[in-house]
Amino acid sequence: MLFFVPATLLKMANVFLFVPNIIGYIRIILVITACYHMQSDYVTASVCYALAVGLDEIDGYAARYFNQGTRFGELLDLVTDCCSSMCISMGLAVLYPDYALLFQFYSTVTIAGHWMHTQRMGWKHHKLVSSKDNWILYYYYNSCSYWVMFALVYGNEGFFCSLYLLYHTEGPEIGYDVGLFRILLYVCLPVMLIKTFISCIHMIVGRKVLLQSEESNCNSCS
Amino acid sequence: MTENVFLFVPNIIGYMRIVLALAAFYFMRTNYILTAFCYLLSGFLDAFDGHAARHYNQSTKFGAMLDQLTDRLALMCFCIGLSVLYPDYYFFFQLNCALDIASHWLHLHQSNLSGRMSHKLIDLSGNPILRIYYTSKPVLFIMCCGNEMFFGMLYLLYFAEGPKLLLDMGLYRLLMYISLPIMLLKALISLIHLITASKNMVAIDMAERSKSNVDSAEENLM
Asked: What b/e sequence results for A206-220 when a residue is b if at least 16 CB atoms lie within 10 Å of its CB, and e otherwise?
């Protein structure tokens, strides 16, 4: 038994070097850099994190353009998203310790929801939710408007970014004596709540489906 | 025969573990004795749900997922709490949790996928050191306990040194130093799992891509 086979490794290097996966690695490095600077240099942290979020759009395009969509790439993308949400929650808990419980709740629900969803979808791409599935999740993944998905994802990230920036500065004043970041916070708050709700649905549906598949196994045994 | 999987004994133990962990997080900054008791008891019960599942023949996919997720998310929430107490070390907690979650997620997903492939994948039990980790129950127990104990002691040390037993050092500090190498070793093993799971997923991707290339080549010939 060998720990790894060098020849296979060379061939595998092709997939590891696919463009969307390289973008994925860059995103990971950017998020780690953002986290490293989170308590000391908020400008660097914000710029790195914003770039990482922006690249999230591009890796999807790259996968389609170069026909380099892979299961590895898809899971890498999803896990990077969830882990960066978790890291942001942890960093924000340090800045706003009185709200630590809320950050714990948010990151738990986000990770649990996506984890159960990927286990439930198994072999299939996590976005291929069929119409026979839960209607909320079906609408979420298949909504006719690309911009709805875009708004949900970026609104959610916008909420946490504003929360972070507000610790340091109110931002440029945009009329009515209110800073930009505070306005963004209130605009993005409902989006964050909707996305958290969707994660809860993921958890509930995932749990039910796992239980149903257990019961159907039991029935077919007896 | 329809058994209610929700009420299986190991799953009930699972729910108790979750409730105990939630209590721990709620009291984390206010009552350290209660927090430590609840969190350590929750971790201790982890040893029993597996036994109960085998004893009552109630092993389920749902139970396995519940167990795995509780482990990952309880540690993550505990680390969020620890970041609040030790804000200078938040980056270490972020890295540790991200590695823990990412490595287990990829490993789980890859092993689910590989069940459907006849493709030969990297078998880590071929490595003699890792084989001990997988097959020896006492070693696995010590590794998991040691890891949890490290974070538990870090928490307690914020409030007290513990009774002085040996070497003129408080018990909590002594236990923290003893469990530190275990925590580091577990992190190293997680990293190995992450790399291996990535390689296996890429191997599955490559097999799929070459198969679809062969299929489309055959179609072109016809």
From this structure: bbebbbeebbeeeee
Q: Is B215 on the interface with A (CB under 8 A)?
A: no
- Assign residue A195 a region (left: φ > 0; alpha: ψ between -120 and 50; beta: otherwise): alpha
For residues B71 and B50, the answer to whether their CB atoms sit within 8 Å is: no
What's B30's DSSP letter? T
Cβ–Cβ of A90/B60 closer than 8 Å? no
Within 13 Å of residue A42, how many CA atoms lie on the same side as its CB?
13
3-state helix, strand, coil in chain A (%, to 5): 80, 0, 20
Looking at residue A146, its amino acid is: Y
Rounded Cα distance between A64 and A67, Å, is 5
Count how many Cα atoms sit within 13 Å of the Cα of residue A214 in the half-sphere of its side chain.
21
Task: Give the pTM.
Answer: 0.88
- Among candidate residues B67, B71, B100, B123, the one labeled active-site is B71
Task: Name chain A contacts of B91, Cβ cutoff 8 Å.
Answer: 35-36, 38
Tokens 């045994």 correspond to what residue?
Answer: A221
Q: Could you tell me the two tokens for A216?
A: 């159907």
> Which class for A147: exposed (0-12), middle (13-18), buried (19 or more C-beta within 10 A)?
exposed
pLDDT digits 0-9 by tens, B61-99? 888 888 999 999 999 999 999 999 999 999 999 999 999
CA B92 vs. chain centroid, Å, equals: 17
- Give the C-alpha separation, B211 to A76, whole Å: 23
What is the mean pLDDT, run by run of 10 residues, along chain B of 222 residues? Answer: 74 93 94 93 86 86 88 95 96 96 92 66 66 78 89 94 85 94 94 90 85 73 70
**Chain mean position to CA A211:** 26
Residue A119: count of CB within 10 angstroms of its CB: 20
